[in-house]
Specification:
Strand content: under 5%
Helix content: 40-55%
Structural class: mainly alpha
Radius of gyration: 21 Å
Order of helices and strands: HHHEEH
Number of helices: 4
Strand order of the largest sheet: 1-2
Length: about 130
């Protein structure tokens, strides 16, 4: 059981990382806690040391994702979502092409219109 301590530490690290990643979002906090617990319960009876070490590498990757690759948008006064990128996350994400900084040149003069449609719910359908 030499791997028991790193497993427990990994579990706690993920729980702490989710608190920061999803701060203020009760639904995301609850769902992430359930998902983390379920993943650990699913592998509770694993005895193969190599498989456990492989799972711990996955814990490290998940922790890094939670800490450095999840951004939380907040609704501002204009009705838009703003996503502030902390310096530490920006530095870590600098090499990734998925992040495109917005500046005067990258914002189109006339944005494309957004059309929101939805199917009526049963309660919304006319009698």
């Amino acid at each position: 059981m030499a791997l028991r301590s790193p497993v427990i530490q990994g579990y706690r690290r993920l729980l702490r990382a989710r608190l920061v990643a999803f701060q203020g979002d009760t639904l995301a906090l609850n769902k992430s806690q359930e998902a983390i617990r379920q993943a650990f319960v699913e592998h509770r009876c694993e005895t193969d040391g190599e498989k456990i070490r492989d799972l711990l590498r996955g814990v490290d990757q998940a922790e890094e994702m939670l800490k450095f690759h999840i951004l939380q948008g907040k609704l501002n006064e204009q009705g838009n979502y703003s996503v502030p990128i902390p310096k530490e996350k920006a530095e870590r994400m600098a090499g990734h092409q998925l992040v495109t900084p917005l500046d005067e040149e990258s914002i189109p003069a006339e944005p494309k219109p957004v059309v929101v449609t939805h199917s009526p719910r049963k309660s919304e359908t006319p009698p």
